[in-house]
Write a structure and sequence with these properties.
Blueprint lengths: L1 E2 L2 E2 H25 L9 H18 L5 E5 L5 E5 L3
Antiparallel strand pairs: 1-2, 3-4
Length: about 80
């Protein structure tokens, strides 16, 4: 599927690959350095999540992106139908 000159399906696949690769890399770094690393507090993680959400909302202002609770209570973004 394309929008203008953008291959939307290809971009989604690329972004999902990059996200999963980054997640796996981070998990490996944490696993091998857990004794020496200081992880963000829950409050700091909430601030990070809010910053990320606001950044996405700013990048896509007309998409009505907001929060929803994930299956495990994790904050996720969703496109809200207008």
């Amino acid at each position: 599927m394309t929008l203008g000159d953008i291959d939307v399906a290809g971009e989604l696949i690329d972004l999902n690959f990059q996200l999963l690769r980054t997640q796996i890399l981070l998990e490996e770094v944490l696993k091998h350095n857990s004794e020496t690393m200081k992880l963000p507090s829950p409050e700091a993680m909430n601030e990070i999540n809010e910053f990320a959400l606001k950044s996405i909302q700013k990048k896509f202002p007309n998409m009505n992106i907001g929060r929803k609770e994930g299956e495990e209570g994790e904050a996720q973004t969703e496109q809200v139908e207008a």
